[in-house]
Write a structure and sequence with these properties.
- The longest helix is centred in the middle third of the chain and has 17 residues.
- The chain contains 13 helices and 21 strands.
- It is an alpha+beta fold.
- Strands 1, 4, 5, 6, 8, 9, 10, 11 and 12 form a 9-stranded mixed beta sheet that branches. The chain has a 6-stranded antiparallel beta sheet with strand order 15-17-16-19-14-18, with helices on both faces.
- It is globular, with a radius of gyration of 23 Å.
- The protein starts with a strand and ends with a strand.
- A hairpin with a 5-residue loop joins strand 9 and strand 10.
- Helix 4 crosses helix 6 and helix 6 crosses helix 9.
Length: 412
């Protein structure tokens, strides 16, 4: 893989916590407006919040405001460019577990040639929206989230560096997640990291498929537009945080449905029993215990659903996934939901919200039933990407999310 250090644009130590924000896609405009302090990056990544009332995020005045704010933050010294190229280390702590990522500039060509592997399809409209932001700012304001197969030497470099240097930033965000950040100023260490990654065969998009595609496509546009292109220009690279596979934990991504396709609850349970061993668990929340075991909430009760032998294929990297099993045996066969990407009869709930959120959505009458899944593993994601397969929609949920605004990558 080809990665490189870069001269990051980032906040001074004393205001890093004020500038850093949650990513653009985990909160809506009203939430962003309520959350944004004076120096928050949200004014740059969700600039519609600076209008009263909140403006259309896809309108020209909002795009202009994004550019104006990015310039303003630099003029005010809230974002400052480092004097030289370097790698950075970004550590996130959640529930007592810490993961250490390398902040690097990843290579556009590696994405275009498939060395940076994806496991989800992207939507053109969402890609184009993200591309506009990269183009107008001439920068990657927010990072993408990659994984790589563990390399012992790389783990040692990171461990030794964080143990021997105080972090530049160290704070706990309002959601309770801890964030620490180091700048690797040692040129020899930076050079060694670049060499180590040359021998790594692939990187894997964990989170941020649309941002990755958008960043790479803008880099490709700039290459085509430059008659003197050499391959060394900064636009050939984009901002990524790269974590060793062993440190990442994938959280469940659950489903709620609006109707039972004309069936009453008893008929639905009878149909489920054709493909599942169905066991009523009562009113206490029931969490799936293993692959092919599901939790269902219906009529105020929790159920354990275990897929029967022969209803799935463990030899197929997609067929083995519980999202596939549930889609085939319930959403297609019984509920006839159609394309899950566009169906208005289903919604998806990130596991970070807990199974109590599923109960709430059903008890409110908004939804009629909820299904909780056992989370996929990082190894399953890598197997799917390596075999060129694509996961069904809404399969993976990574937590904690990368904080935006700790460092930005300029394209020139």
């Amino acid at each position: 893989m080809k990665i490189k250090p870069f001269a990051g644009v980032r906040p001074p130590k004393e205001i890093a916590e004020e500038v850093a924000s949650r990513p653009y896609d985990v909160l809506n405009s009203a939430e962003a407006k309520a959350e944004a302090g004076e120096k928050s990056l949200l004014h740059i990544i969700k600039p519609e919040i600076d209008f009263d009332p909140i403006a259309d995020e896809h309108s020209q005045p909002v795009y202009d405001k994004a550019v104006e704010n990015f310039k303003l933050w630099q003029e005010r010294g809230w974002l400052v460019q480092d004097p030289k190229e370097m790698y950075y280390i970004y550590a996130q702590t959640m529930d007592g577990r810490t993961q250490y990522g390398l902040v690097a500039a990843a290579n556009v060509e590696d994405y275009m040639t498939g060395k940076i592997k994806k496991h989800e399809l992207t939507r053109k409209d969402k890609e184009e929206d993200r591309m506009i932001h990269v183009r107008i700012q001439n920068a990657n304001i927010e990072p993408v989230f990659f994984a790589y197969p563990d390399v012992e030497e790389m783990n040692e470099i990171v461990k030794n560096y964080v143990e021997s240097h105080a972090p530049e930033y160290d704070f706990v965000a309002p959601d309770g997640f801890g964030h620490k950040f180091w700048a690797i100023t040692d040129d020899a260490i930076n050079a060694r990291i670049t060499e180590i990654f040359k021998d790594i065969p692939a990187l894997y998009v964990a989170d941020g498929h649309h941002r990755t595609a958008a960043a790479a496509l803008v880099g490709e546009e700039k290459r085509k537009a430059n008659p003197n292109h050499t391959g060394n220009e900064e636009y050939n690279y984009f901002l990524a945080v790269i974590f060793p596979e062993s440190q990442l934990k994938v959280i469940d991504y659950n489903r709620v449905v609006k109707d039972l396709n004309g069936l009453n609850s008893e008929e639905f349970l009878n149909k489920l029993s054709e493909s599942f061993d169905v066991e009523e668990k009562g009113t206490e929340i029931y969490k799936p215990t293993k692959l092919h075991n599901f939790s269902m909430y219906l009529d105020g009760k929790w159920y354990s659903l275990t897929a029967k032998e022969g209803t799935y294929s463990d030899n197929d990297p997609i067929g083995v996934l519980d999202v596939t099993v549930l889609s085939n045996l319930v959403f297609d066969k019984i509920l006839n939901l159609g394309d899950l990407r566009t169906s208005k009869r289903i919604d998806f709930v990130g596991g970070i919200r807990g199974l109590g959120e599923l109960k709430k959505r059903v008890d409110s009458g908004e939804m009629v039933a909820a299904f909780a899944l056992y989370p996929v593993t990082m190894r399953q994601i890598i197997d799917i990407a390596d075999t060129g397969n694509i996961m069904p929609p809404k399969t993976t949920w990574f937590e904690p999310k990368l904080r935006s605004g700790l460092v930005i990558h300029k394209l020139s």
